[in-house]
Each structure stands twice: as C-alpha cells, then as structure tokens.
C-alpha cells in the first residue's frame, strides 16, 4: 500500500479487518518492520484521537514519529500555481511537501474543508498536491471529503462485535443524521458510507442511510445504500446505528432546518434490534446523542475509538511491507 | 501505585526518597519495565519543567511518550453532566479521558484552578473526572490544589543535601510567602506543606510556615505545622527556606495588601542558619527572591529543578511495577 | 565540538563535509553514540525544516528528542539582569536555560532578531546567555545573526553536486539578493557568506556577493568575498546561484528601494554557466525566484533541504563524540 485516502485503496475490507484484529491480538510482533523508519504527522487542523492513535500505532511498529501542527507551528501555505507570492502565504505546498518527504518515510496529513466552495473542497486539491509533491506514501488523517482511518476502525468494530453472535445473519447498519449547532464537513459520513457500501458489496452488512430532506450525501459515496428520510422506519431492525451530524452537500456547507426527532435516544433505540450505537467523536451530548445511550450498555463509542489504533497500525504496516519489497 | 495526586498516595516518604535517589544513581537500570508502554502527558496549561522532566523520566524507563497540549492542540472540554452541549464545549471529559486511556498505559494531567470559585477549585472536579473516566493510572502534573511531583522533588533535595551533614540534627524547613504581581494558585504551597507535614511526622524535618495575615493556607494541608506571621522570627535557625507566592485562600484568589519585608534576600538570610534557599520556579527575580541569593551559593533552585526528573521517574516506575504485578 | 553557532566552530569545512556525506551513506551506523542521550530543541520562533531535520538527525544517532516551542507552550523570558521582574516576563533566562540543561545532554536553540536595534541583535545577547546558563553543548537552530546548519547543508550540497564533474575547476558561487515583501533578518546571508568565505580560503570555491546599494552585509561576515552591485555582471560564469532576500544592515532592518531586475529567472540564468540555483526555503515564488527555475532542472532547493539532515547529524555526532571522550 502506497496511499491510504479512501476505501478504494483497500483491495478487500474483510482481509484488512482480519489484519487489524491480528495486530490487536499481537501489537508488538512487527517492530523490526519500522526500525529506523519515521512517520511524520502533519496537522492543518486540531486532532485528539487521530493524533494519539496514529502515533501509538507507529510506535507499536518500531517507528519514530514526528508531529507537526503546521497550522500552529508553521506558516500559511500557498496551493495555487502561477501566483506571485507577495501576499500572506509564506511557502508553496510544492516545496513544503517535498521537504517533509525528505525527512520522513511515511507522511500522514489532516486537512479539513473550508465549506465555502463545494467544487474546491471536493477536488481535494490541497491533499492531492501534498501527495504528489511529497513523494512518499501518505495516510489520510482526514481530508476535505473523507476520514478513512475512522471508517476502517468503524468496520473493525462492527465485525469484531458482530461475529461474537453465531447466528449467521448479516447486521443491519444505519447511518443516522443527527442535529448540531455548527456546520460540519461531510468527510466522516461520506467515508463511512463508502466503506459500508463496499462492506455490503463484500456481503458483510446491509446498509441504510437516514437523513432529513436536503442532507443527502453525494451519490459518489453511497452506491447501493438504502436511502431513507424517516428515521423511525430506517431504524427498524437495526443492529448498529452510526450517529453523525453533517452539513448539507446540496446547499453546500449550510445548516438547513429539519423536523424534530433526529437526536438519537432510548426512545429511538426501541425501533431497533437493541442496536449498538456508534459515533466517531467528539460528540455533543444530548444534542446529537443522548447521555443515557452514551453512558449505557448499547454505546460502542469508546471501544470504537480504541480500534482507531489497530486501523492505523494495519495501514502503516501495509505501507512498511510495500516499502520493504 | 495506581494514582499519584498527593502525599496521601505515598506510604513512606523516606522510602520513596530512597527509591528516587537510587534512580538518580542508576537512571537506565529499569528500561525493560517501560518497553512498549506509553505515557500520555496532557496539558491544560503551560509547562516547562514538568513537561521536560516527566518526559525524560519516562524515556529513562524505556517508555514512549506522547505529549498533548490540549489547551492549544485540542478543543474546549465539557465537565458538567446533564447539560445539552449546544454551546462552546466540543467534547465531554467522559469521552475525552476515556479515549486517551485507550492509547496510553499511564496518563499525566496538568489542570490549573480558575481562582474564581474556591469550592469548585478545591473539589478537583476536572481532575477527579479525568481520573475516573480514563481508567488508567494517572500522575498529577499539577492540579487545582496540589503539585505533588514538585513537592517530592523538594523533599528529595532537602534529604540529599542535608544528609551530607553528619550531625544528626533534623533540619528546620520554612515555607516563606513572598510577593508577586499576579494572583497565583495555592497548589505549590499546599502540596509542599502537605509533604513537609508528613515528613515531619516521619521524623525527617521540623516544619514552619510564615505568611502575612490573610494568606493562611487551608488547614487540611498543614497538620502539625508551626504557623508564623513574623518572617524574621520564622526564619530564626532555618536550614531551608522555601520561597513562594500564593494568593489568599480565605479571600479566595485575591492579592491582599501585606507589610513590607517579605521578599527573601541576604538581609533576611542572616536570621537563618545559613539556610539553603529553594523555589519551584519560575521565579520573579527581585520581587519574590533577590538575584543575589539566586546567583549565590545558598540557592538550590537549579539542583531542585534537576531533581524533578528523579521524582517523576520514581513515580512512573512504581506505576509500571504495579502494572506488571 | 561543544558549541555550534558559526563556521568558527568548524576546524575544517572540507573534513566536516566529508563527515556529513559519510553519514548520508550510512545513516544508522552510530546509534550506540546517542543511546540514553537526549536532545532538547527549543524554539522561540516557527520552524519546519530545522525542526524536522534536526529531530530526525538525532533519532538516526539513537538519541531521544524533546521539542519545546517556548514561544507557544511556555512563557515570556527575561534576559536583562538587575531588573525587578514585576512586569510581563515570567522567568529569567538564567533559570530557564539552566533548568533545560538539567534534562538534556545537548540543546538546540532558535531565536530570531527583532530587527529594531542592530547593536542588540548583533550582540546575540539572548543566544549567548542561553549558552552560558544551560551548561550543556548548544547547536544553533538559527540565531539573530547566523543560521549555520543551513550554511553547512549548503556547502555539502555544492561539494556533493560539483565533485561529480571531474574537470578540477573550482565552482563560482554567487550569493544573489532578491526581492521580498517583508523585512527579513540577515542571518541566512551572513552565515552563507561566512561559510563560503572560509570555503574559499580552503580552496573549495570562488565566492561573489551581489546586492543593490544599501544592502551590503556586515564586513565581519564577508572577508575575501567579491562584492558586486550589478547582478548580471556578478552572475557571469556562475556555477551556483544562492538566491536570498535580506533587509538592510546599514539602515538596519529596513526594506530599501532597489532597481528592477533582481528576481532570479531563466533570463538571468543565461548569464551563468548553466548554474544550479539554491535557496534556503521558504521561498516566495515569482517574487524572489521564478517558478520556472524552481520546477526546472537547475533547482537544487529540495536536494539542499534534504542535506539539512546530514548537516545536523554531523554536528550532533561531533558533540556526542566530544562528550564520550
């Protein structure tokens, strides 16, 4: 693996989940792989789970890690070509990325969308230029439109908890839109949908998305998903409910009005098959998701966050193995 | 040891000082203890000595270290239960702490008081919730009311320098309030008092506290201490003077008026038994403590800061040993 | 080597370049040298290349690294002696430096000039006090007047690319002033000039400096350099052109008016001997240096940034060897 930016970089989800769970069972078995190799983690935006889990994953593999909060420790980067740099940008991404590639064997990059211009955000211009110019393998730590390490951890969590039940039935997974006070990116739901659609195609799950009118995700990310507008109907028989807010894709970056009843709580859980509840975190308690669920037996959110480590470790291990070929 | 937040977590100061000095004599003897273990250092406030000495201590023990300046790199945490999170807090401490516990074997936390509400600060609500929800051993890197790694380094320094004198007499240790321009927490003096009172109970020292009227510490931290209001009388025969400013506990968080003469200088030193002078640093020169002392032979401040390393290493080592039981 | 702040700390450039290129050929051969040794990197200003390359260099040598962005994670330092610290400075450099020296075997320091007062900046007061009080070996990560790790990487790059040509001729190296929108320090050009003048004295190169009237560097840094005011004449026959902006030394810290034609581009390159073009980065594209050069075959800027690693590694290795004597 030379690039990890979406589910399209993963030949088989089933196999990749298996790899991750083997690492979870035996975290330190591959430390010679990472010896004298350095992972650089570059953040253009804040991070808690992603930074710590990816750093720990690399340490488990025997690597060194250098963290660079480029939004705080560095300076403004230019991404446009052909401009005279006589303004506020101090360095062009062509040089900045190429230089970081000189000191690191693998780079991770986090770069959020601005939510002003859909074409610009969905072009992934910044991320793609970084990949192009750094000239080393790159792991997405969340880009403008995707958060694949999160989605990988999510499918690991579903697989891990479901296979303890020996009934052979495929789980019904519902991505359920939830309210928020801020306009959030579509990166997490896009990515979750994309991974679940592929997992559905691999026969692992059945996948439903529920959201109010106007909050439909781009169809590029939802091939084969069952799209619903009534949350209670969508939840019927659900085994996993993945709660998440996102701003509108159609009216790009906007927070639209929506009918009552989209916060996930115990009342809603009654419609499900005693579903496990997931969220990528950070979660706004009692706005997106009720405290009663988060503090109760149906919540998987901490377990799911813990699996971020094994997702990252499986990705980095695959890159190190590719490098050693 | 599963928790290090105060002297109450330490069965015997004498033994713990001995452990620390053995590490100082042989810093790298226990590197197998920390192999594949990770220390997470979480800062809600700035730090210099604490961050570097604790990081180095963990490295000496063979651990990995991940530093998280949550005040700068993260986001605002909610601590209250039962609130709808539709305001400025992005994540609840229940989730944030639990997640960090997923990636770290031991966590260190720094969290200063706000100095607005005594009950709130002295409840140590934030710190205690972090400990409760992270579910791994926690080292205090200074909380609202205590700074135990500093106090441990202080008693190490006193023991180490005193035992070179073979006369058998117990040293007289004086905690001496000093002026400052800002309202500072009581964490360092509370903690120093608490450790010295226990050291006095263990027969290691005699302990006196001197401060102007209105600056009395909470009695919870000063059992058995000799409390004085006249600095010159308090200094009589002192072997160690621990200089420190703090704001009022009674009129909580306030800087009260005080009589002249509380800055420590060579004139004051004449009242002592050629006392060694200590300060936790950072120190305001010629406001709290004179330059002539800081740059002269009676100052222990750098030596004392150096011992922060061995204090931290003894604490982390005790936690690793508990973990391996 | 106990100090690395200028070319004056280097007995022979030729030998030091040879050492660096041996490390480049065999980066991990000296890991026992750094075992249980810690490098502390202290930044008073932002850094990208310097931070990552120096961190990686120390890791290659088996050291631990602790990074401290003192401008962001710490507090304001006092440097003047004899002042009552009742203002905004929280800690004196005497204590701060001494404390950092307690936890680190080698320290690196970055501290830019303020460009207000030439005497103050050129006295290197802050840097020299840090060196004095920390009491451990110090590597300059760029001071008010010099950036020696950059200059060392520059001469490595020139030597490495030139010696592939077997004609025996010495290369002509031209330091060429270029436009910018901000007032920049003289640290990089001072340091480059100083290293090139010594390399010229060692018979490695011929050295020319070209700048508009008023932009002359201090003569302390340019002994033996050929100083030119006409950029086209200066470029005649050049083998290497080192492009860099700096503010005036004479009218200290000012951006003076200058005639057109100082941006380096392909038109200018025609005057040279198909010169390789260098820049310390970050570079303002199409203001200092044209995109056509940066993206073309004559640019060495990324290669040169890559050599920062081997420059840092050679310096740190020399310090570790001195320590082990």
TrEMBL record, chains A, B, C:
GO molecular function: amino acid binding; ornithine carbamoyltransferase activity
GO biological process, one term: L-arginine biosynthetic process via ornithine
Source organism, top-level taxon: Bacteria
Keywords of this entry: Amino-acid biosynthesis, Arginine biosynthesis, Transferase
Pathway(s) annotated for this protein in UniProt: Amino-acid biosynthesis; L-arginine biosynthesis
Amino acids binding N(2)-succinyl-L-ornithine: 142, 180, 244, 284
EC category: transferase
Substrates-to-products reaction catalysed: N(2)-succinyl-L-ornithine + carbamoyl phosphate = N(2)-succinyl-L-citrulline + phosphate + H(+)
Sequence ranges assigned to domain Aspartate/ornithine carbamoyltransferase carbamoyl-P binding in this UniProt record: 6-160
Domain called Aspartate/ornithine carbamoyltransferase Asp/Orn-binding: residue spans: 203-318
InterPro entries cross-referenced by the UniProt entry: ArgF'-like, Asp/Orn_carbamoyltranf_P-bd, Asp/Orn_carbamoylTrfase, Asp/Orn_carbamoylTrfase_sf, Asp_carbamoyltransf_Asp/Orn-bd
Record EC number: 2.1.3.11
Binding site for carbamoyl phosphate: 47-50, 75, 110, 147-150, 280-281, 308
Description of how the protein assembles with itself and partners: Homotrimer.
Family statement: Belongs to the aspartate/ornithine carbamoyltransferase superfamily. SOTCase family.
Function description: Catalyzes the transfer of the carbamoyl group from carbamoyl phosphate to the delta-amino group of N(2)-succinyl-L-ornithine to produce N(2)-succinyl-L-citrulline. Is essential for arginine biosynthesis.
HAMAP family, alphabetized: SOTCase
Protein name: N-succinylornithine carbamoyltransferase
Species of origin: Pedobacter paludis
Gene coding for it: argF'
């Amino acid at each position: 693996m030379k690039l990890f930016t979406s589910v399209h970089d993963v030949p088989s989800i089933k196999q990749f989940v298996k790899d991750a769970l083997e690492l979870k069972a035996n975290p330190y078995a591959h430390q010679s792989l990472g010896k004298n190799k350095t992972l650089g983690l570059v953040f253009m935006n804040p991070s808690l789970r992603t930074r710590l889990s990816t750093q720990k994953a690399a340490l488990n593999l025997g690597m060194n890690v250098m963290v660079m909060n480029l939004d705080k420790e560095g300076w403004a980067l230019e991404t446009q070509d052909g401009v005279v740099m006589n303004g506020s940008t101090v360095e062009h991404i062509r040089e900045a990325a190429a230089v970081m590639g000189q000191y690191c064997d693998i780079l991770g990059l986090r770069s959020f969308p601005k939510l002003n211009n859909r074409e610009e955000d969905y072009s992934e211009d910044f991320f793609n230029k970084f990949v192009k110019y750094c000239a080393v393998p790159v792991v997405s730590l969340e880009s403008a439109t995707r958060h694949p390490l999160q989605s990988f951890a999510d499918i690991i969590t579903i697989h891990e908890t479901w296979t303890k039940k020996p009934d052979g039935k495929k789980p019904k997974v519902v991505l359920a839109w939830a309210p928020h006070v801020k306009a959030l990116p579509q990166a997490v739901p896009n990515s979750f949908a994309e991974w679940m659609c592929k997992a559905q195609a691999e026969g692992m799950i059945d996948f439903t998305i529920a959201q109010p009118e106007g909050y439909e995700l781009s169809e590029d990310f939802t091939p084969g998903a069952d799209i619903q507008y009534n949350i209670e109907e969508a939840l019927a028989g659900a085994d996993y409910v993945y709660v998440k807010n996102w701003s509108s894709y159609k009216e790009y970056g906007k927070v639209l009005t929506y009918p009552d009843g989209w916060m996930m709580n115990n009342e809603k859980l009654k419609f499900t098959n005693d579903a496990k509840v997931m969220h990528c975190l950070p979660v706004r308690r009692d706005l997106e998701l009720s405290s009663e669920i988060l503090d109760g037996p149906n919540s998987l959110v901490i377990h799911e966050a813990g699996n971020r480590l094994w997702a990252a470790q499986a990705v980095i291990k695959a890159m190190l193995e590719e490098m050693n070929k």
